Amino acid sequence: MKAEASAEEPAKQKEAGRKGQESSKVILADRFIPSGTIGEKISPARKDEVISSVMHNKPIADIGAAIGINDRFYYIRELFSGDALAYSDTIRRLNAAASLGEAMKILDESTVMGSDPAAQSSFVDVVRRKFSLHV
Question: Are 125 and 100 in contact (CB under 8 A)?
């Protein structure tokens, strides 16, 4: 048994020696350790400003043009009970309004009572963007 154990010991030592040599070798890939993604390298220093928040606060000239197609159908369904003509007429009247107060009166007259509060809030935000220069 001693002969077998002594024969196994040099083999184990050789394997341990190889593993030690392999871990100490530097390969080409080790030179190119990533220091961040490309996006992190080229992004502006101010990360607290998100593009969507900038766009949501940007003043608009035409309410109809500022509302995307998905939101348009959402507003028609929720605020105008599916009446696309009432929506179009309201947008036309809102664009012609002289002040935010007048626009809010138009909204009160035009929209359906008891409609979705989230839809009302987001629609009012768009209307406020129209009059943000006049406030």
Answer: no
- 85 has a pLDDT exceeding 80: yes
Domain boundaries defined on the chain: 2-42, 51-130
Distance CA 133, CA 60 (A): 9
CA–CA dist 107, 94 (Å, integer): 8
Cα maximum dimension of the chain: 103
Write down the pLDDT at residue 29: 72
Over residues 42-83, the pLDDT tens digits come to 666 555 556 555 566 678 889 999 999 999 999 999 999 999
* Residue 40: both structure tokens together: 């992190």
